[in-house]
Fold this protein.
Amino acid sequence: MERILDQYFLYGANITIKDVNGIGLYIIKDPVLDFKDKKLAEKYIRDIHEKGIGYNYTKIIEYLSDFHLDQSKLEKIAFYVFKKLTYDDLTVPYFDTKIERIECYSLNKPVSVIHSSYKKYGRLYTNIIFNSTEEIRFLLTKFGKDTSSKKIMSIGEFYTYENNKILYYFDNNLINFEIIKSYEEQPIIINVLRNNNIDCNTLSYLWETLEYKPFYIIISNKNKAYYLFNSLLYLLPQYIKIATIERYPLFNFKDRTWLTFHISAQYKSKLISSVSKYEPDFVLLDLDLDYIESLLKYFPTQSGLLMFTNLDSISNIMNLISNYLSRNLEKIFVNKLDGIIVFNDKLRIFEKYKLGNKVRFKEIKIPENLNELGITPQIRNICRRSRNSYNDIIKNITIKSEILRKIENNNIIDNSQIQEILLQYQQ
């Protein structure tokens, strides 16, 4: 079943938003030029280059107006010239102010976009397809990136002339890139405190454990859990590197070293392998059984891992793992796992411990007086990893709780102000 949701024009190109069997499409139809008009347009392009007129659409229209073309021909030629001088097939979504992100994760597959008016679809799939790495390299050069390097693998980010952010990844003949034009509102920790039944001590304990890059599984509504951990990771040192693997874009780590991967970008095992090459401090992704073996094989031991699921209980998670993995892989997975976070009506932290040869999970209840908190499994792990004493860790949690109360009491909603407070406490 096909439904047209919207239609509008940009620079003479027709944009149609469709729903086809529940999948969102963003279809671009360029104005058609005949052979004679194309030759004329190419002449104008050479002239614009020579005269240094610039690539602004309004200036192109002003330049073409001197030739007294009829209005229909003027608009068609202006679009063709503007497209060739700027970003070729990506010109329309790039300059469409309703598009927030443009994503190319594979050759011979549609480029996808995030549309501000149709976020319920996650991604809209376009009729733009790149068939060769040469096309993409040429396009990235137009955006301002030198792609002449012969390195086997290249990873990084840069900003376009219009100050939009591009993340890219080259690996032999594989090129992925994402253009981030605008960000949604950044998650802030004060909204977590205001809108959820979470006390500062519990949140500060979780914050402290995150600094040591644990492996947590999180049971929660996805949007709610993502907002919580997006906000918490913003409180960690600014130099940390975060990688997110998402089917739909929910995280927003603006101004951080943030690497985003689309869940269907590559074969899943290769995707995990690619992510591990970045050596991220944290990887955030859904609990997906197809990833588990690759995670156990490729995942760097120095990285933290946060896996999200809407399964309703710890026993269901452990049964799922037990039924899917071999006995040996199940043992490795459980050994790596530090705990399970349940975030529904309130935030509950369950940490792993051993009872004989069996693994159990114990809820950690954080007291109002932090000095009454005993040696939890995670505190024991932190002491072993960092060589900090129990008293050192309790002191750190207490300071973090004071910071959260200060943020809440002073109604601080700006992440830059929060960073200033963190810096003051560090000094």
